[in-house]
Amino acid sequence: MSQKSRVIALYKNLQYLLKEYPADAKKMQIGCKKAFLRNKDETDPKKIDEMIEKGEYVKKEIETLYALKKYRAMKKRYYD
User: Fold this and answer.
1) Which of 55, 59, 68, 77 is 20 to 30 Å apart from 18, CA to CA?
2) Which long-range contacts link 73-77 to residues 24+ away (Cβ below 8 Å)?
3) Residue 55 burial by CB count (10 A; 0-12/13-18/19+): exposed, middle or buried?
4) C-alpha–C-alpha distance, residues 14 and 60, integer Å
5) Residue 42 and residue 48 in contact, taking contact as beta carbons nearer than 8 Å
6) 10-33 as b/e, with b when 16 or more CB fall inside 10 Å?
7) Residue from 59, 48, 76 nearest 16 by CA
């Protein structure tokens, strides 16, 4: 998979995940877009790979946050 397609896929995934972010979703989506636009002129492949890895880490953190939110809701439903 080329770097360009990886970046586009990462951007789309983050935008999708941030639609239901627990805090201010619109603010988070705008911040994500600004971060991608700020680095759009980067040409060094190593730096691009580093940024993609950082983005993947953020994506996993958001997914973990959602899983924790679901877990807490289930726990509250059955044990409180």
Assistant:
1) 77
2) none
3) buried
4) 10
5) yes
6) beeebeebbeebeeeeeebbeebe
7) 59
Encoding tokens for residue 73? 């809701």
Residue for token pair 């997914």: 63
Percentage of the chain beyond pLDDT 70 is 99
Q: How far apart are CA 48 and CA 39, in angstroms?
A: 9
Handedness of CA 69, 73, 74, 76 (dihedral sign): positive
CA distance 41 to 71: 40
Q: Name residue 19's amino acid.
A: K
For residue range 28-46, list pLDDT tens digits in order: 999 999 999 999 999 999 9
